[in-house]
């Protein structure tokens, strides 16, 4: 596990230390500095078509380039940022950076691929997300269909009316809406009834069962049937083993994402990955 092993070049905070209140306050202070200096970098993980294996979208995954700890993964600071409300300012940086990156790729003559942005509930409660996205798209002169939004069901729980109104307005602009981590929350099905989602991302805990557990496959097949009947595409998250790809292809899962396809990569790395797949 990355949290204990420091694989992938990531370093991390010692949880024993940061578990203490004083340490939490320290982390919060450092996070504040990180936000005002924008110490964040975005990595991008490809999502590919199950049939063609071409890249259909990139997921932006934020990392904190901490001055002494090195590259810190989101699980180490997003939960605290959500608690303290710092996620709002952090989220604005992410939206702006993604739009700036899409514009830079476009200027460089690289075929622009839509980028999917993770958004937490607090961001919806405290900001006019519709205006925020509109302004960022406008500032960087990129069309709305280059941006997608991923949200988990918890994002809809606080103020469903307001959140769906904003999401509907963004959807009308051409921004695709994705359900993230489907199957892990308490109200996944209720959420589908609230909004017109385009794409459903099945949580990696279901993907993990494929090939090992017959019941897991039955559940996955049922989710795909339901999603297709509702007019959504389905993405399997966390694809790590070739046999999972075979099963997912047989189940008509539309798109794949996971370490087997590609790890999250920096902006240059992901462009190399896209090129490699365009030629192959
Ligand atoms: P998520 O949106 O569900 O993103 C998928 C996570 O699974 C990513 O972790 C990704 O690196 C990891 N992953 C991808 N393929 C595999 C695989 O094959 N196996 C396994 N075990 N894991 C895989 P990451 O980058 O650490 O991000 C964790 C979470 O942090 C994200 O989960 C998302 O909820 C949150 N997050 C990341 N970036 C942002 C952001 O900009 N804003 C907000 N609000 N949340 C973010
Ligand atoms: Mg996501
Ligand atoms: Mg997910
Ligand atoms: Mg998640």
Q: What do these coordinates show?
A:
The structure is a single chain. The chain has 280 residues and is an alpha/beta fold. The chain has helices at residues 2-5, 15-18, 21-37, 78-84, 87-107, 121-126, 129-139, 154-157, 160-173, 188-194, 204-207, 214-229, 242-250, 267-279, and strands at 40-49, 55-66, 70-72, 115-118, 147-151, 176-182, 199-202, 233-236, 255-256. Helix 5 runs parallel beside helix 7 and helix 7 packs parallel to helix 9 (160-173). It binds ligand C2E and magnesium ion (3 copies). One magnesium ion binds at residues 180-181, 201, 237.
Number of discrete helical segments? 14
Distinct small-molecule ligands in the complex? ligand C2E, magnesium ion
Please report which band the strand proportion falls in: under 5%, 5-15%, 15-25%, 25-35%, 35-45% or over 45%.
15-25%
Written as H for each helix and E for each strand, in order along the chain, the element string is: HHHEEEHHEHHEHHEHEHHEHEH
If strands are numbered along the chain, what order do they take across the biggest sheet?
1-2-4-5-6-7-8-9
Report the structural category.
alpha/beta
- Biggest β-sheet description: 8 strands, mixed, barrel
Secondary structure: number of strands: 9
Coarse morphology: globular
N/C terminus separation: 32 Å
Low-confidence stretches: 1-11
Please estimate the helix content. Answer: 40-55%
Kindly state the mean pLDDT as a whole number? 90
Rg: 19 Å
């Amino acid at each position: 596990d990355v949290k204990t092993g420091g694989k992938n070049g990531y370093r991390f905070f010692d949880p024993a230390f940061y578990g203490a209140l004083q340490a939490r306050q320290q982390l919060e202070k450092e996070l504040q500095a990180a936000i005002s200096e924008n110490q964040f970098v975005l990595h991008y993980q490809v999502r590919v078509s199950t049939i063609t294996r071409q890249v259909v979208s990139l997921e932006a995954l934020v990392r904190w380039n901490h001055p002494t700890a090195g590259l810190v993964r989101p699980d180490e600071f997003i939960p605290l940022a959500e608690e303290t409300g710092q996620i709002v300012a952090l989220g604005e940086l992410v939206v702006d950076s993604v739009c700036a990156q899409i514009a830079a790729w476009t200027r460089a003559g690289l075929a622009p691929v839509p980028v999917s942005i993770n958004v937490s509930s607090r961001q919806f409660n405290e900001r006019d997300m519709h205006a925020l996205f509109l302004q960022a798209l406008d500032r960087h002169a990129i069309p709305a269909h280059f941006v997608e939004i991923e949200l988990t069901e918890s994002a809809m729980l606080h103020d469903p009316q307001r959140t769906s109104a904003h999401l509907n307005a963004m959807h009308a602009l051409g921004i695709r809406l994705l359900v993230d981590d489907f199957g892990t929350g308490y109200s996944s099905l209720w959420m589908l009834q609230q909004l017109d989602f385009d794409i459903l991302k099945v949580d990696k805990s279901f993907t993990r069962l494929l090939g090992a557990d017959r019941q897991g496959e039955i559940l996955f097949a049922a989710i795909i049937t339901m999603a297709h009947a509702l007019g959504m595409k389905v993405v399997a998250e966390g694809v790590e083993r070739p046999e999972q790809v075979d099963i997912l292809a047989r189940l008509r899962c539309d798109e794949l994402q996971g370490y087997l396809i590609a790890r999250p990569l920096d902006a240059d790395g992901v462009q190399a990955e896209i090129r490699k797949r365009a030629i192959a």
